[in-house]
Amino acid sequence: MEGRHSSPKHSAAPVRRPASNTTGAPEQRPVRANSEDEYRVRHETRVKIKADQEAENTDRAVQIRKPVKNRGDSVFRQVILDIVMTGVILVIFAFFHHVLPRITEKNTVIRPVSTVNVTQPATQTPEVTSKLPVTSDAPADPVETEPVPAVIDNRTEWQKKFADKFSDEIVITDNSYSSPNVSVTIDTFSGTYNGFYQTYYVADIYVAGIENFKTYFANNQYTYYGAQDAEAMARNSGAIISMNGDYCNNQKSGILVRNGEVYYDDPMEFDLCVLYYDGTVETYSPSEYVPADVIAAGAYQTWKFGPKLLDSNGKAMTSFNTTYVVEKEEAPRSGFGYYEPGHYCFVVADGRQNHARGMVLTEFAQLFEDLGCVRAYNMDGGASSVLTFNGSKYNIPSGYRELGEILLITETTDIDG
Q1: Measuring CA to CA, which residue among 34, 36, 402, 108 is closest to residue 245?
Q2: Percent with pLDDT over 70 in the chain
Q3: Bridge partner residues of 189 (DSSP)
């Protein structure tokens, strides 16, 4: 049993063998790249890195430009917003400053603050006396005789002075009116005047008393921005003849006296025209009058549109206290002229139409000098220039416009305007 259970005399050391290749393929050893391949790889790597860097730079540039673009859009939007807000503010200002006052105050009736009190001279009746001869003898029995009635002339001074202008009864023609109290004759001129084709109307007016010369407000009351049709005003006031006035009811200042009633007595920057109770007319520059003095002197009517057209010698003025547009525009015109107490004229010139060019202010002033007036005053013009006779339009206005007031001649003396 020796051979079966005995240990060998020598034991060999274990030998470490490499792991077997499970794929069965021959074992690969790393091969060192030659220099040409290595250069190509490095070049491709650098190209790729450069391309990546350029792409990254491009992205950064886009990201940098985007805020600038957004900033510009923001500034533009802010400018537009500012403009819109400014426009809204201006519209709101115009509404509250111009539109709303007219809407809220359009029907505001303005009452006179005082009345001009002028003592009219009393009519003197001539004293009738009878002188009998005186003798030294005893007085004889008185002889009874019938008293001789005194002849009393009840005519006014103006009726006496202009007796040939008035008539004993009312006489009306297409262009004239006469009665014991009023005389009106309208002359129409159409043709070349100062080198231009013109059409104008001159109403020659004589009145028996100052009360025949009236003014009348729209709807018979002084209302802020009140207006009424010119023909309706003429009919309602009993006007024989009427002409538009000075657009006084769009103002709440200046000196304004109508039919002896004082509404305002403030100084103003424009020329003033005054018709006094004694029938005289004066035109003033702003520095030539004091409102209180004008009223105290017996102002019966005042107008404040202007300007005055004649100087103190009755000569046409060449420069005026008014705006450039009023002075230079070829426009329809209305004006009031004065010859002497009791003798006046209304003058209306058509314009802006084929039959009439319209006048600049120097031409209109020259017309009053040619007529022989000693004072003249410019009223509102344009589409407001309207002359009525017996309740109907006599001229051809350049458009339709309701008026705030009119100047008129009437038989009646009980008009409140």
Answers
A1: 402
A2: 76
A3: 200
Q: Determine the Cα–Cα distance for residues 200 and 123; give it in Å rounded to an integer.
A: 40
Tokens 């009517």 belong to which residue? 301
Tell me the Ramachandran region of residue 363: left when phi exceeds 0, alpha when psi lies from -120 to 50, beta otherwise: alpha
The model's pTM: 0.71
Which pLDDT value is given to residue 106?
A: 67
Give the pLDDT of residue 151: 81
Lowest mean pLDDT among 130-134, 222-226, 255-259, 268-272: 130-134
Cβ-contact 401, 384 below 8 angstroms:
yes
Structure tokens at 356: 């009439």
* pLDDT tens per residue, range 80-100: 888 888 877 877 776 666 656
With CA atoms as reference, report the closest residue to 263 among 212, 305, 209, 217: 217
**Model confidence at 377: pLDDT above 90:** yes
Residue entry with tokens 């006094």: 276
